[in-house]
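Running this now, will post back.
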Amino acid sequence: MTGTIVFDPLLPWLAIGALAALGLFGVTLALWRGLRGWAWRLLAVTVLAAALAQPSFQQENRAPLSDIVLMVVDQSASQKLADRAGLTEDTATTLEARLADRPNTEVRRINVGDSADDAGTQLMSALSEALAEEPRGRVAGILLLSDGRLHDLERAPDLPAPLHLLLTGKETDWDRRLIVKNAPAFAILGEPVTLTLSVQDDGAAPNERETTIDISVDGAPAQTFAMPIGRDVELPITLPHGGMNVIQFSVPEADGELTDRNNTSLVQINGVRDRLRVLLVSGEPHAGGRTWRNLLKSDSSVDLVHFTILRPPEKQDGVPVNELSLIAFPTRELFLDKIEDFDLIIFDRYKRRGILPAIYLDNVRNYVEQGGAVLINAGPDFATAQSLYRSPLGEVIPGAPTARVVEEAYRPTITDLGNKHPVTAGMLNQDTWGRWLRQIDIAASDDAEVLMTGVDERPLLMLDRVGEGRVALIASDQAWLWSRGYEGGGPQLELLRRLAHWMMKEPELEEETLFAEATGQTMRIIRRTLEDSVGAVTITHPDGTTEEIKLEETAPGRFEATFTGPEIGLYRLAEGDKEAVIGLGPAAPKEFEETIATSEILDPVIASMRGGAPRLEDGIPALRNVGEGRPAAGRGWIGITPRNAFETVDVTQTPLLPAWLVLLLASAVILAGWLREGRS
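Update: finished.
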């Protein structure tokens, strides 16, 4: 129970002051004139002014409130190294018991685990949220049980009480870690990309200058190299293939180091082509020739060389030879010397006229067998004796002409095989496509994959693999009608884009492939095939254990499943003769970037309220009461600041000048003053 005097004025304080000043002026005037009752006048002014101020005696019935101690327990991955987890839990249990034995004290325990999306340890965020839920006037102390490796110091709150970091880890701890710097997400095929690697020893590490590093690409057997410690090393790497390349770097675990979780790093780089170099050979001017040229030139990633025969040799019109062209076309250079520089060669309605000798076309055949790509857009001449099929190139063409040209309107149709093949799969609304008006009758070879048909289900689009290369044959020169919007047009641009990417062996257009797409620790496994069914996928974990997962068909020729990896690292997938690798989780988990326990990160926050950072390996510190603003830590002890907070249960007010007393006093004083001055 406590009591104080409070005022509840009837008038504003300014008005009361003005009235009191006016009364004092009257008293002063009476004193100046020598009136004997001036003292009674002064007493009357005082009583009336006090009455207007309404003084009261206020009594509060208070209930004491307990002090709150926040205990933030770090349970992140780095706290599970060595004996930190056990030490932390034992310390938390002991301190909870000690605090519970203190009078008028409560403990709020906040457990902080690993954050999502590899955000690291978010201790200050958890502390800010805890402080927002508690009255700041009751918080007597904050205990933080951690290794001091947090990643959100910028969110440190304004502290109402001392913060103490009870530091796990030992002074003798040391760790070796592998760091991969400036690893790009994309790289140009054929061009080296430079990665910067370094091996760092932290803590009380032994004095070693060198170790070894293993480098593996896509899960292949690793190559071992010497690696200096404490120095950056630049490593140029040329990606072996397009699509995702998974490169694993690892250094061996050293005796006595804290963990080997940061001795391995996965880098995933997507290999892309800089530019697509295309040679377009047009046999003669026709309505679709400009469409091919415009289509290829509209893509900024395509370097196009266009070879067009505008005047056939058999035409005799008397024009001098030196006026037929501005420069001599470098046919020998293109078809013999530099043919390997091209990614794709397109023959658009080309027929043999002696302009390209047989040796040139034979070189094109060799180019295909050694990994090149040829697309043939066949016109009526393909069915004649001058057909490209009658040249050395015919050995790699996936279909033989029957010498018949069908002049009939038809709508291209995707075959059952085409619905599975990535070049034509998913091309919907075939009923709305415009019709083509001509088709070359082709007898497809046994190895050819027929993806589209035309009149009476005759082969229209055929693909084949020859040696290391690929060949495509379109048995019509009418595809340009789609680009002109004839009868609604059709997906010419998408079809030709997919064709080009399939011929460039882009992984996303392979018809027989196994790959996975990762999102955090979850991967989506995709098996694309032309078969009707596939077997289960065998998954090999980073630790060497295996398990199988069945795939479900999600579209024709496409089977999928999802899998969540229990740990970060490289996973190997296998189904039949198809294999793939993928890395789950971050390349270098933030929790293991630095693992040596330290108070340096939190020192500014601790110093703001004069807290401490004792090591738990020296024992659990004792708890003491300290005054606010005083040093809150010393050798073997940490301080808690009692808050002495209370809750007001009841309030009573007793007027010091009730109305009857004011009336009595005012009347008595006025009467006394009148009598005193009346006798003068």
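Residues 120 and 590 are 5 Å apart (CA to CA). More later if anyone needs it.
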